[in-house]
Design goal:
65 residues, three-stranded antiparallel sheet
Length: 65
């Protein structure tokens, strides 16, 4: 996956701790993401995840906005 350092306007992101989070823009810097599942039977949003997430070093704020 390629990175768009300005942030991709098609991918919104509120996870400050992600290595691909475009700080201050609320966007993801990846050109595409992979969505994965956290359970075998997916029937709600909580059963999915951004499988492209990678923990980054964005200071001590490790959560969502």
């Amino acid at each position: 996956m390629q990175r768009n350092i300005n942030g991709n306007p098609s991918i919104k992101c509120s996870v400050n701790s992600c290595a691909y989070h475009a700080s201050g823009t609320g966007l993801c810097t990846l050109n595409e993401i992979k969505v994965g599942c956290t359970r075998q039977n997916v029937c709600d949003c909580e059963s999915t995840e951004c499988a492209s997430f990678q923990l980054g070093d964005h200071g001590s704020n490790c959560g969502c906005r």
